[in-house]
Amino acid sequence: MSSSTHTSTISSGSLPSRRNTELLMLIFAVAIPIFAYINVGLAKEGTVPAGVFGYAAGLGCLAAVAHLVVRKFAPYADPLMLPLATLLNGMGLVLMWRLDLEPSLGSTKAAPTQLMWSTLGLALFVAVLVFLKDHRVLQRYTYISMMVALVLLIMPIVPGIGHSVYGARIWIQIPGVGTLQPGEFAKIVIAIFFAGYLMVKRDALALASRRFMGLYLPRGRDLGPILVIWAMSLMILVFETDLGTSLLFFGLFVIMLYVATERTSWIVFGLTLAIVGAVVVGSFEPHVHSRVEDWLDPMKTVRETGNADQPAQAMWAFGSGGVLGSGLGQGFSRLIGFAAKSDYIFATIGEELGLAGSMAIILVYGLLVQRGIRTALAARDPFGKLLAVGLAGALGLQVFVVIGGVTGLIPLTGQALPFIAQGGSSVIANWALVAILLRISDTARRPAPAPAPSPDAEMTQVVRTS
Amino acid sequence: MSELTLTVMRLGFLAVLWLFVIVAVQVIRSDLFGTRVTQRAGRAQPRQAPQQAAQQAPQRDRGRRASRGAPTKLVITEGSLTGTTVSLQGQTITLGRAHDSTIVLDDDYASSRHARIYPDQSGRWIVEDLGSTNGTYLDRTRLTTPQPLAPGTPIRIGKTVIELRK
Predict the structure, then answer these.
(1) Domain assignment of residue B96, yes or no
(2) Looking at beta carbons, which residues of chain B come within 8 Å of A362?
(3) Counting beta carbons within 10 angstroms of the beta carbon of residue A396, is it exposed (0 to 12), middle (13 to 18) or buried (19 or more)?
(4) A400 Cβ contact partners less than 8 Å away, ≥ 6 residues apart
(5) Contacts of A204 (CB under 8 A, 6+ apart)
(6) pLDDT in tens, A44-88
(7) Residue A65 domain-assigned (yes or no)
(8) CATH number reported for the structural domain that contains residue B142 in this entry
(9) Coiled-coil stretches, from where to where (chain A) (predicted)?
């Protein structure tokens, strides 16, 4: 039986827990935003800002707590995810504070609120790591997650709790607390549903198909779920006029379907359906239609009225930033107007850090997504694999949708740049997302227990050698 | 603040940001070089050193490239495991009721080490009966010697039917 030894598995070597690497990277990740904070202070006011010690202590404390919790509750988790998320969140806080210094953007200060939301987000991060001992528990709640996701998505349409801001109905009003974007949380919950559902159905979806013109066409009854999700995301698009969320949901489903079945035809299908849906809704729904118009010709209002609106201002911001940027605190992103802290925050990065800085930030997102996909590769159970791919995919899609929208690659949508843009729901949900990824990666990288001695194997050996 | 200081800080910040990215990439280098290929065999094999594993990897790749257009997976079309696929990567596939088989058959008519499917030097896949009690059938004939296996030909073991697919 010597030739049967070619059967091989690839595992990471004797894995060190790498918590010390994480600590070093975390210190680095806290130091960069502090540098940025001092830089903004020097550029805007000519002195090192007085709040720098408070800011450093606050961010440092949050990072330290997160690190200690990971050390205690997920000792084998990936060493990079926490530092990457901390860096992005820290940069987001600095940019909030930097835009707060512009009087023309209004007197409401976004940075303290954002710091509070970040703290809440980290609290949820800690809670997920402490209470979710094994991600496979989530598998039991496959269909409950589906219901929860549907409820979360429908909530903004319900009159009374739904709340419309600048034409998009994606907020709900909670009396006394403020507004919340349920779509951000639905993103995580729906990934759990897709992972649980596809794990059960993937063989039927992958194998039962007819070949037609080089594509594997799935059977009608297997097409059902994808059509339901498609219809659902279109409903979101029509009733909430939220292109971003519907793109996110549909894209997430197609990614996970592709990973589960290894069938390219699903991607072709998904893209066709998404394009058809987007074109139809884009030409009939006025709010979405105006976004598409802005995207096709951002300079139209400049030519007609002489005043530039947001898409044009964002383009100019990227242009004036050039390769190396104007330096933190020295740009003119206040001209973008009211959405400078939320939808258009990437334009500020583009102007003040230039192409070099934007690329670095995009790479940091890319690394975070890569760690998620790497976790999926290392995970031993199919549910964990699918869930990790789904969560990483959701994060990546969201970054693509936002940055693509701001830079003019696709029509702008009302999504928040994860960790950086202003918005409590987004920061909280994304910290929870990172916590679940860390939990899966901890389970995946944990050294496997020695296999139980099998009584069968020994008997077989005796027979073989005789 | 002087222009010079601000310029230095601006470039310094970009440098630090990129340094972070580069250090982060260094940290994940272990994904590529810190892995070990372990051999799962019927009997406990001494674990291979990483260097050896690294030498083996390209060889396996070459073998896979040479056989383009060859079958890529083994599909179970009948029996309790219907729908299971095993991708073929130049490794031997063992079938039987033993726990360490590649495909563990839960079938009353299968022996614990029933059959194996392996590539020969030219990359053809060969099916061999391992002295099973109830026999392995290639299409309709019972196997007595190792036989080359064409894609789409059913192999029957008890109630389980297996095919090579492209």
Answers:
(1) yes
(2) none
(3) buried
(4) none
(5) A222, B83
(6) 888 888 888 888 898 999 999 999 999 999 988 889 999 999 999
(7) yes
(8) 2.60.200.20
(9) none
> Which candidate from A12, A32, A326 shows the least CB-CB separation from B20?
A32
A162 inside domain: yes
* Count of domains observed in chain B: 1
Q: pLDDT, tens digit, for every residue of A208-220?
A: 666 666 666 666 6
Q: How do residues A277-325 score in pLDDT, each as one tens digit?
A: 778 877 877 777 888 888 888 888 788 887 777 888 888 889 998 899 8
pLDDT tens track for A111-138: 888 888 899 999 999 999 999 988 888 8
User: Is residue A462 situated within a structural domain?
Assistant: no
Q: Which structural domain range is residue B92 located in?
A: 73-165
Contacts of B38 in chain A (CB under 8 A): 8-11
Report if residue B16 sits inside a domain: no
CB contact under 8 A, A79 and B27: yes
Residues of chain B positioned with their CB less than 8 A from the CB of A222: none
Nearest CA to CA, how far is B89 from chain A (Å)?
Answer: 9
**Number of domains forming the structure of chain A:** 1
Given pLDDT bands bounded at 50, 70 and 90, which one contains residue A91?
very high
The complex scores an ipTM of 0.84
Q: Which pair of structure tokens corresponds to residue A214?
A: 């080089």
Residue B40: its pLDDT value, please?
52
CA distance B71 to chain A (A): 16
**Length reported for chain A:** 466
Dist CA B106 CA B160 (whole Å): 9
Task: Check: CB of residue B112 under 8 Å from CB of residue B92.
Answer: no
Q: Is residue A8 part of a domain?
A: no
Does residue B54 sit within a domain?
no
A81 touches chain B (CB under 8 A): no
